[in-house]
From TrEMBL:
MF term (GO), any: DNA binding
InterPro entries: Cro/C1-type_HTH, DUF5753, Lambda_DNA-bd_dom_sf
Entry-linked SUPFAM superfamilies: lambda repressor-like DNA-binding domains
SMART domains reported in the protein's UniProt record: HTH_XRE
Name of the protein in its database record: Transcriptional regulator
Gene3D superfamilies, alphabetized: lambda repressor-like DNA-binding domains
Domain HTH cro/C1-type: 22-75
CDD domains named in the record: HTH_XRE
Pfam families for this protein: DUF5753 (PF19054), HTH_31 (PF13560)
Length: 281
């Protein structure tokens, strides 16, 4: 049986310790990141980010490295420690943002508000203000949130994005009528982009498997899918495949019950016609 590595003296911070061990194992073999990629099968950039601590990756990657280096269960155990470390909870959203920027494709279901990637400045400002942000801090938050739209802009290397919106999202207007018109117009416009698929989940479809759950699925470059669930109080990054799979199955069932792309756009345009125009001055 392969001897487990002695890691006494390594960093005691779980995330850093995991990164150190992955780097040391590779260096002992004398491999470059590209050589390791050829041996194990994932993109070399992923291993670079694992070794720098920029990402924890998935448990499947940890298991594959354990198998390759003949360190049964060691890296997976370190991965589990890093993920469950209480200090990581505050960083989950930051980690999610990193993964979002690197995702090969994205699928979202929103039950409550327009997703952040599809929010206009005015929509983001009102939502964030309701959360207690004010003044310069509010404007910084608005800039950060709407800056994420760049992920879906451009002609090349733009990840496919599917947004499934509950009908209630589109029937809950902003206080400013003109700002709400602009938000609906923006949704109608982005729904025509070839890499974006926007569908509406009608109320008549009833409750679904993701009731009361806003969720974003990210398919990463290593082929693993992670999920980020969110409510008004907290968010959770879910990386274990066994926990992500039921959410994906529920999403697929709800997508099948949603309006098709053309009907969804027509529905948004009908709502747009119902918004009163601002009186001329």
């Amino acid at each position: 049986m392969p001897r487990r590595r002695v890691i006494t003296g390594r960093s005691q911070e779980p995330r850093r310790r995991y990164a150190e061990e992955i780097r040391l194992l590779r260096n002992e073999r004398g491999f470059s990141l590209r050589q390791l990629s050829e041996e194990v099968g994932w993109d070399p950039s992923l291993f670079g980010k694992l070794e720098s601590g920029a990402t924890l990756g998935s448990p499947e990657v940890a298991q594959a490295l354990d198998h390759y280096y003949e360190t049964p269960g060691l890296l997976l155990a370190l991965w589990e420690l890093a993920v469950s470390d209480p200090t990581q909870f505050k960083e989950q959203y930051r980690r999610y943002m990193i993964l979002e920027s690197e995702a090969a494709s994205l699928w979202q279901y929103s039950v409550s508000i327009v997703p952040g990637l599809l929010q206009t400045d005015a929509y983001a400002r009102e939502v964030l203000a309701l959360g207690g942000w004010k003044g310069k801090d509010l404007e910084r938050q608005v800039e950060a949130r709407t800056g994420r739209r760049k992920l879906l802009e451009g002609c090349e290397d733009v990840p496919p994005f599917r947004a499934l919106l509950a009908e209630a999202v589109l029937r809950t207007p902003l206080q400013d009528r003109q700002a709400w018109r602009e938000q609906l117009e923006f949704l109608a416009e982005v729904g025509e982009r070839k890499h974006i698929k926007l569908q509406v989940m009608p109320q008549s479809a009833g409750l679904g498997g993701l009731v009361n759950t806003d969720v974003m699925f990210l398919r990463l470059l290593d082929g693993v899918t992670v999920a980020y669930t969110e409510n008004s109080h907290r968010g959770e990054l879910i990386e274990e495949s066994a926990s992500v799979e039921p959410l994906l199955l529920a999403y697929d069932a709800m997508r099948d019950a949603a309006m098709n792309l053309d009907a969804s756009r027509a529905f948004i345009l009908r709502l747009l016609e119902e918004v009163p125009c601002e009186p001329s001055t």
